[in-house]
Amino acid sequence: MNEYKYIGKPVRRIDGQAKVTGRAVYSDDVILPRTLHAKVLHARQSHAKILLLDTEQAKAYPGVAAVYTAKDIARNDKYFRMGDTKDTWVLAEEYVRYIGDMVAIVVAESEEIAEAALRLIKVEYEPLPVVSSLQQAKEAKDLTRCDKPGNVAMPIVVERGDVEKDFAQAAVVAGGTYTFPSLHQVHLEPNSATAVYNMGKLAVYCASQMWFHIREDISAVTGIAEKDIEIKPMMIGGAFGARNDQPLPVITALLAVMLKATVKMTNTRLEEFLACRPALGMEIETWIAADAEGNFLSKKTKLLSGFGAYSSDGDAVTAIACFRGDNNYRFRSTYVNGTGLYLNHAPTGAYRGFGNPQMHFALEQAIDELAVKLNMDPTELRLKNFMHNHETSIHGFRYETNGIRECMAQAKELMGWDEKRKNKTPGKGIGVAALIHCSGSRAGKPEFAGSSALLRLESSGALTVLIGESEIGQGMNTVCTQIVAEELGVDPLSVNVVMGDTSLTPFSTGTNGSKLTSNLGIAILFACKDLKKQMSDCLRERWGIGPVEIKNGAAYGEYTGEKIMSFDEAAVKCSHAFNGRPFYGVGIFEPKTDLGDATGYGNLAPAYPFGVQMAEVTVHDNGTFTVDKIVSVHDIGKTINSQMAMGQVYGGVLQGMAGVTLESLAINKEGIYQANTLLEYKPPTFLEMPEIVGSFVETIDPYGPYGAKCIAEPPIIAVAPAVANALYDAVGIRFEEAPITPAIFRKKLLEKQRENQRQNQPEKLPENQGQQRTNPKEAGS
Amino acid sequence: MNATMYELELTLNGKKVKDMIPSDMLLIDYLRNVRLLTGSKKACGAGECGACTVLMNGRPIYSCITLALQAQGKEIETIENLSDGDTLHPIQEAYLDAGAVQCGYCTPGMIMSTKALLQKEPQPGTQCIKEAMAGNLCRCTGYQQIIEAVQLASERMEQRRRDS
Ligand code: FES
Ligand code: FES
User: Fold this and answer.
1) Of B49, B81, B113, which one is at a domain's C-terminal end?
2) Are residues B77 and B94 in the same domain?
């Protein structure tokens, strides 16, 4: 095995010092002279016709620069490029379709004035029926929007193999209908942007996972050419998918252009909840057919997903939910019927895992159910059916490395699985779930599959990596410095990284699909090699030195192995040989992957990460439960930064656990988010942490840099089913609906106890029979 | 915004300062917008996340639900006071060494809460850390490495006390 100096080590974050001292500049920290402040008037109704919209009083308010409604915006229908449907407007025209839909905007001298003026805008609505649930949308009696009959935003129907035949031959069939609610990313930093317009040019200071796409959006809405727009990347306070599609920077830019001014807008937390892009809620009916030995034959799935009132990332997320989970196992056939439905709530999109956690919640519980029916250890059942190295899955994924079996072995060890299964402790339960994801998914990237990177060397010896992706907390900027340090032998903290300044960096399709380390990492590696070659060529041709090799922070004679000059001296020589020009190492990585054919078939990623997650729960005497421990083992390919990789595991696991046991937007029949504060939505605090044991299996993938795959998304993916399966193990109740809050758990447990009593004493009538599941918030969780 | 203007005098990061401010101005807005100390963050504005945590006479407070005038005559310390621009405070060092920083938006508030905790309880156990810091949300780290950072800072500060 290779010995690396920086790769695999807990190298300090390059942006760490700025972050711990409060010097890091995030979007809302941008304070520029002569700035106007904007505030949006959001709809107060989930679905209504706008009868009257009167802004006169607001316009007359002292300090107000402008009040705009849809009719003031020339290119109101040019929003939004994401999603093929293009069914969104900048401001609502005739109808509002979710609480949070944007109706009017005030721009004023201060935020306070803008807020005061907002209250003077008069709106009259004619309420229309609200479509708030997937079932209601599917029935299509009421319409989410009058221009979309049937409420269908997208259908997917795909069959591979002969599903009916395989089901007819099956010895066992297991499954059910599993529902997973719309969750919110809750990145801690609310969206903020400052846009500066000057003489036909625009600069926008903001946060994004897709700098170039946001520039495209701004161009579409303002009519200013992309080359006249500069996106200034700010430090980003978390993203988790939420910053794939953000209206705020686009609108701020538009206002700056309309007013020929500098405009700033910052969301409140409430606006983050109401007017952003949470994850898709899904209802998934799935059945697995197996033979008597437990070999999987086929899988049948019907999936409904909630798009919200307009399309954002809904189509791509739904497609991934439909297909990805299947690829972990050997199926002979599979059928999926997926329908994306419009609902009167916020448009939905990407959240860490991108539809995969929703599907895993269904699939991994169905497999657990199958194990029960077969009377098999659920780990054995999975081991029997996992895919192998070099196999191609039913949807066309090809695995160069697949460490899922090693992950299972490690997870069992770390959980003490066999021992705990043999000697069951009453009130305790353990559960397992496996996962698969993509490292650098091609899905939804029509432009190209790969990444490119520049590495600039100045005469001073300063090295700067220039890339078009984003640092969202995941630590990619530090990974860049590690790769450069490893290749050139310089101190990683001495390497600069510019991410996403659209006037300086290569174009990028965005920071998503867990593709940065695996795809971009190789591009950076290639850029290093290119730079080294250019330097040694220059030293030989222009200075007659060499041949040399650049390594260990210096130039060495290739034959003598002796140090000839320091890296900085070589930099000066190179630059001066060309009248001061910097040297640019260029790295391009183009993976051999497919966009997927019309049926979604194809090898979407250069590499695939696998993992096994296990949960241990305790049921308390008062009928509630706690998650005590989660084991999370990942086939990461090769760890680039051991400490940051573990940080991804801890963060992802806790997010996954909270997503199934605590969090809920609690959307009611009126389409209102009853949980629209941090207190009510309940992201986990220190007090809800279980013990998390993370571990890695290094399979050394032939594609990734040094063999690396990815780690950002996988840790969230199978936590929910692992917890649900552990609860089943503890109390014998299948929790098909998330969230499983302690309060909901208690209710179900009591129901079951009553049921048992009833069976023992048939004369007693049960209470609460057929009662609907109460809203988690009403249940006093 | 028609609030009366008042004179606010306080000790901010060790220096006496004086400003005319509206009576309804929040401490976080005073720090960020008047004093340009943007290290403290406003992530909820409702006392629910701790990103705005600063120390008032050594005690951690949510500056987003505190009026600036409540700081009258008091000592306020913000994240900007912890490093002189060349060296880091041991708590800051520990956060970096333990990998307790990801997106960093919670970090200034976390570090201020840590400072207050270690002042009161120089060697806190895990449960004590969890309880003391439960008012600070972090969405990225899963908290484990933050707990490790607090413990590391505690050890190093203890070592320093012993050495001096
Ligand atoms: S911003 Fe003050 S507690 Fe959240
Ligand atoms: S590091 Fe991102 S919120 Fe804590």
Assistant:
1) B81
2) no
Q: Do A686 and B131 touch (CB under 8 A)?
A: yes
Q: Is residue A774 very low, low, confident or very high in pLDDT (cuts 50, 70, 90)? A: very low
Instruction: Name the domain boundary from B13, B48, B81.
Output: B81
Measured in degrees and rounded to the nearest 5, phi and psi for residue A693 equal -115, 110
Q: In what order do the strands lie in the sheet with A95-96?
A: A95-96, A48-54, A122-127
Task: Identify all chain A residues contacting B107, using CB atoms and an 8 Å cutoff.
Answer: 19-20
Q: Are residues B156 and B113 in the same domain?
A: yes
In 3-state terms, what secondary structure has residue A397? coil
CB contact under 8 A, A22 and B130: no
Same domain for B96 and B75, yes or no, is no
Within this chain, do residues B107 and B47 fall inside the same structural domain, yes or no?
no
Helix (H) or strand (E) holding A363: helix A356-374
Q: Do A687 and B130 touch (CB under 8 A)?
A: yes
| Residue whose C-alpha is closest to residue A281's, from A316, A318, A335 | A318
- Domain of residue B150, CATH code: 1.10.150.120
Contact A235 B104 (CB under 8 A): yes
Could you tell me the CATH number of the domain that includes residue B58?
A: 3.10.20.30
The nearest alpha carbon in chain A to B101 belongs to: A16
Give yes or no for B5 touching A (CB within 8 A).
no
Nearest residue of chain A to residue B147 (CA atoms):
A686
Same domain (yes/no): B65, B99? no
What does the pLDDT look like over A555-610, one tens digit per residue? Answer: 999 899 999 999 999 999 999 999 999 999 999 999 988 888 889 999 999 999 99
Per-residue pLDDT, A765: 44
Q: Name chain A contacts of B144, Cβ cutoff 8 Å.
A: 650, 689, 692
The answer on pLDDT for A82 being more than 80 is no
Span A358-403, pLDDT tens digits: 999 999 999 999 999 999 999 999 999 999 999 999 999 999 999 9
Residue of chain A whose Cα is closest to the Cα of B132:
A686
Claim to verify: residue B38 and residue B68 sit in the same structural domain: yes
Smallest CA–CA distance from B51 into chain A, residue: A188
Q: Is some CB atom of chain A closer than 8 A to the CB atom of B34?
A: no
Burial B74-108 (b: 16+ CB within 10 A, else e): eebbbbbbbbeeeebbbbbbbbbbbbbbbbbbbbb
Residue A773 pLDDT greater than 70, yes or no: no
What is the average pLDDT score of chain A? 94
Nearest bound ligand to the CA of residue A13: 2
- How many CB atoms neighbour CB B161 within 10 A? 9
Q: What is the tens place of the pLDDT at every residue in B71-119? A: 999 999 999 999 999 999 999 999 999 999 999 999 999 999 999 999 9
Answer whether A473 touches B (CB < 8 Å). yes
pLDDT per residue as tens digits for the range A309-337: 998 889 999 999 999 999 999 999 999 99
Asked if A651 lies within 8 A of B44 by C-beta distance, the reply is no
User: Partners of A231 in the beta sheet?
Assistant: A204
DSSP annotation of A324 reads G
User: Chain B: nearest CA to A535, how far in angstroms?
Assistant: 34
B49:A678 CB<8 A: yes
Residue A109 vs residues A38, A39, B153: alpha-carbon distances, Å: 9, 11, 44
Give B134→chain A minimum CA distance, Å: 5
Cis peptide before A547 (omega within 30 of 0): yes
Domain identity same for B144 and B98: yes
Q: Nearest CA to A457 among A570, A361, A614?
A: A570
Decide whether any atom of ligand 1 lies within 6 Å of the B135 Cβ. no
Domain count for chain B, please give it: 2
Question: Which tens digit of pLDDT belongs to each residue from A278-306?
Answer: 999 999 999 999 999 999 999 999 999 99
B30 and B63 co-located in one domain = yes
Chain A CB contacts of B51 under 8 Å are: 188
Domain holding B44, by residue range, is 5-81
* pTM confidence score: 0.95
